[in-house]
Design goal:
Strand content: 5-15%
Order of helices and strands: HHHHHHHHHEEHEEHEEHHHEE
Helix content: 40-55%
Number of domains: 2
Largest sheet: 5 strands, mixed
Number of strands: 8
CATH superfamily of the largest domain: Histidine kinase-like ATPase, C-terminal domain
CATH class of the largest domain: Alpha Beta
Distance between the termini: 22 Å
Radius of gyration: 22 Å
Length: 441
């Protein structure tokens, strides 16, 4: 008797049994999934290795943009996206059935499988017209997947008693890091296509124009730590002034190597710095709300080393409460689960960018020319006073993605020191989990 492959048996059973999520109609134009799918197609893509890239590679490849390079970029993305999605689908299949049957995680699984089927069927891109059609597919999929983060977070929280929390945290970190990797290569290619199609781009010229000289696609070549801190600080101060109704907002003092620059994806750094500053400012506001004295400033120290840039963000907000401290970096455990679930339910889409935080129209107009806004910023928004419990763990995922690090030290009764380390040279490959083996199912 022929023995059936365990992965195929598992997937066939799962696809027959798992119910359609109650909120499946939340996405436009989403068809009901078929009751069964063969596993052989997914097996083939899982066998392939993902090909990590570095910021330096993205920069060198896109600096001199020609038609052939743009088409090469399109075909790299065309093969990488289904490969990376296939690995994450297999990761989800390795979870216990009772977990993947959770409506939120089932919803994400179906969204990923729909994207996998869509991307793997794209034929080789040979012309600029083929590339334009492919870019339309990318934009549609990026927009659809804005629902992934809140649904993943709610699913993981709801399953915290079904699986070891540390295992769920590893699962969440893997999926979020992979999500960042896919968005990086997709948005980089969309940005390169936009650059190529712009009226000021001359493919035959080796010289770059001044209009967009600081960017190669989504990579900001001259990312200045001081400017990012000041820009994010002003935005966070304004957000918290609006949400708290108080004018007792702490100042932000920046010291150290103020001229430090490095290549980075600006949206990633803005998210990390924004979340750290938001935590610090909120803590200081709450501690000094009934005090007559002026709240102490948030102190930011920038240190430039030969290979790294290190930023320390210090506050006097009283430190992290003892009952929360062990769960700072966890997506799936902690003392405020029900509050987090309730708040996440109010955030149907999430791009994990600073720009999606709700801010007044006047402020948006004032900041319009100071930074390159995420392509997804206008598609999602969330109130700044909603505590989702994801800011720190998500920031660490962003920091570690380009081989950096994020650490936090709390001094109970005094304040917090957060240390962010970033690779200065841009020569570190993205840190992605490349392989999910079939035998592990």
């Amino acid at each position: 008797m022929r023995r059936r492959h365990p992965a195929r048996c598992w997937q066939n059973i799962w696809m027959r049994c798992v119910p359609k999520p109650r909120f499946y109609s939340a996405l436009p134009n989403t068809q009901c999934p078929p009751p069964w799918r063969p596993a052989s197609v997914l097996d083939e893509w899982v066998e392939r290795e993902a090909r990590p890239i570095s910021l330096r590679q993205l920069t060198f490849f896109g600096r001199t943009l020609t038609e052939s390079r743009l088409i090469s970029s399109a075909n790299y993305v065309r093969t990488e996206l289904p490969t990376r999605i296939a690995h994450r689908l297999r990761d989800m299949q390795k979870l216990p059935y009772v977990v993947v049957a959770n409506p939120h995680l089932s919803f994400v699984y179906e969204l990923y499988y729909k994207a996998f089927e869509r991307f793997r069927r794209v034929p080789e891109i040979r012309t600029l017209e083929d590339n334009d059609r492919y870019c339309a597919i990318l934009r549609e999929t990026l927009k659809e997947h804005l629902t992934v983060i809140p649904n993943l977070a709610m699913g993981v929280l709801e399953c915290q008693d079904l699986v070891d929390p540390d295992e769920m945290d590893r699962f969440m970190n893997t999926l979020l890091r992979a999500r960042i990797s896919r968005r990086v290569i997709a948005e980089q290619h969309l940005a390169l296509t936009e650059t190529f199609n712009s009226p000021w781009h001359f493919p035959d010229s080796m010289a770059r124009t001044d209009l967009n000289a600081d960017f190669v696609g989504e990579v900001f070549l001259k990312c200045n730590a001081k400017e990012v801190v000041e820009r994010c600080g002003k935005l966070v101060q304004e957000l918290l002034r609006q949400s708290s109704g108080s004018d007792k907002i702490p100042e932000i003092s920046v010291q150290g190597h103020l001229e430090t620059t490095f290549p980075y994806i600006l949206g990633h750094l803005e998210y990390i710095i924004g979340e750290l500053l938001r935590n610090s400012i909120q803590a200081v506001i709450e501690r000094y709300k009934d005090s007559s004295e002026k709240p102490p400033p948030i102190e930011v120290l920038i240190c430039e080393a030969p290979q790294h840039v290190i930023m320390r963000i210090s506050d006097q907000g009283g430190g992290v409460p003892r009952e929360i401290l062990p769960y700072l970096w966890s997506f799936s455990k902690g003392p405020r689960t029900q509050t987090r679930l309730k708040n996440l339910g109010q955030v149907p889409t999430m791009a994990a960018t600073m720009q999606e935080l709700t801010v007044s129209a006047d402020r948006k107009d004032a900041d319009k020319e100071t930074y390159r806004e995420s392509s997804l910023a206008s598609l999602s928004s969330r109130p700044p006073n909603l505590r989702l419990g994801m800011g720190l763990p998500m920031s660490r995922v962003y920091a570690e993605y380009w081989a950096g690090s994020l650490e936090l030290h709390s001094l109970e009764g005094y304040g917090v020191d957060a240390f962010l380390q970033i690779s200065k040279l841009g020569n570190k490959n993205e840190q992605v989990t490349t392989r999910a083996t079939i035998d592990a199912v």
